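Below is one such record:
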Amino acid sequence: MFAVGEVFLNAFFQVLFDRLASRNLLSFVRQLQGGVDSELRKWEKKLKMIQAVLSDAEEKQLTDEAVKMWLDELQDLAYDAEDILDEFGTQALESKLMAKNQDSTGQVLSFIPASLNPNAIMSNYSMGSKIKDITSRLEQLCQDRIELGLQRIAGGASSPTAAAHQRPPSSSVPTEREVFGREEDKAKILDMVLTDTPSDHANFVVIPIVGKGGIGKTTLAREVYNDKAVEDSKFDVKAWVCVSDVFDILGISKALLESITRRPCLLNNLNEVQVELKVAVDKKRFLLVLDDVWNEDYSLWVDLKAPFLAAAPNSKMIVTTRNSNVASIMGPIEHYNLKRLLDDDCWSIFIQHALESRDLNAHQISESFHKKVVGKCGGLPLAAKTLAGLLRTTRHDAWDDILDSKLWDLPRQSDVLPVLRLSYHHLPSHLKRCFAHCAIFPKDYEFNEKELTFLWMAGGIIRQSRKNEQLEELSSKCFQDLVSRSIFQQTSSGSAKFVMHDLIHDLAELVSRETIFRLEESTNLSSRRFERVRHSSYARGRLDGKSKFEVFNEIEHLRTFLPLCIRGGVTSGYITSMVLYDLLPKFKMLRMLSLQGYRIGELPIPFEDLRLLRFLNLADTDIRSLPESTCALLNLEILILRNCSRLIKLPPKMMNLINIRHLDIRGANLLKEMPFGMKELKKLQTLSNFIVGKGETASGLEDLGSLNFALLD
């Protein structure tokens, strides 16, 4: 059993309390018939009773399956309650906007439901039933907490402030200032790389580095790859590709070709790619690194290596893998088995990452503490780095408590290292939720700060603080906090791209607790439960039709629909109108919708059915205009229209998008003006560019001057 505990709950509860305390919401529900106001007061009372025992539940669920199930049910309820409160909040916004427009024009906007009437809402059977269902479930959970013996723990972490206290796709650029304990290993691998080795079977020799996860295989390969002796040798071609779980021959071949030629590969036919790859290595001596290989299918390896048979003799291929069987199918009889680090080397790594000062005397490090640290690291560099990241963000007087935690001794039911489990356990509640959401990305996916923080903001994971900090500032702080804890790693020094080690990604998948579903070719759908799924991502294809998303019919409460461009994947494709018109409008709880990279000329989506949407990414599409119903998205915070090169106009009622914070129209070069009333967008934080129009229906410089935002670079 894994210690998840309050993964979403403390932070989630604060979101619910904020919603329940909203002035707009309170003012709106007081007008409603059917006792909505009193029902919501019951919710708040019951939620506070439950929140008081969360700390005890977090501890007891480690050994009590019934408590773990109770927490799962509580998480589901929190999601459902937030959906209802967001619906009420949206109705309150619509009511306010409807009154404003009637006062000014005497007309009701077409996209606002004509049936919107405060007295009719509670009489709506569906909404009334949902409210009473939440109340009933809350009462049952309160009763269950008594039967489970859950109690309030004085000084526990049930308040969010009490706790506050895909493996990286390797590049050839070093990410460590200094590597400890691998001098002998490096010398041996270098000798294999630089020594001419005649082969009867191929022009190249495979050098496999085998070892368990987190032991430093990638770091060792990188040290060899960047060594001056290799730079001075006669390798004509060098390339590095991280392979990871899925052994996609086309994707790997494209990545290798791009690494060798330093040019993007736009081909999507395996034969064409491999012909180009063969030309690139023909009669040339190469050094290639295939990092993190899992494939045990010999026929796939035969297909992948075919172009390299044309290379010059004494070419070398370094392969890193956890599995000796993987190494065996790739040819060599002997593998280089990487051993654990010595205790002193683990200690050096820990000190490098944990202490700002290298003066140990300044930190009063005891010998017993030293022994505890190296004992917990178990000879694994990743464990040393992660433990250091945990302790450097913790008060010095609490270090021993962390090292003595019983979480170290829990039985392992996965490949998650105890130190990773502990590091997660000690994250503040809001960071736990941020981290768990990272499971939306596949392993080895490279992301930048803004890409992820936009998802956090739109997902309601980051909430407004009482210090008047902007959501963007809070999101950035959360991101940088996870970087400082070694949970996110830069792909290379100075890079704006980040990744997660595959073991850390495994942890994110584990703690997301079935709420995130990635549609992948290797997914075993028969064993998957979909009733708890809220967020989904998938690799964009050349033609994505209804059959691809058949399984989505089993998902009722989807909040995130996110196509991604993975390494070697399709950057531009097509999606059928049946998906846009029939499937997506069913997901009325959607907060985040991306159609980036699809060759869409128009949007047949009735956006009035997606009124909770906060994030809409239409970048790199062929749309010419946005439908008027886009202006029904009163909750919309982020609208990305980057590189919409055929977009000629924005909807005239954009002034109604009163919650918009980020508008990106870079590359939409056919736009001639901004719609009238842009000065009403008071929450705007960033705008890529402002196009001053000439007509009466356009916004002018006076609108620009009344806004407080930053222009994007």
Notes: Confidence is low (pLDDT under 50) at residues 1-7, 118-123, 155-168. The chain has 25 helices and 19 strands. Residues 65-105 form the longest helix (41 residues). Residues 343-407+424-502 form one domain.
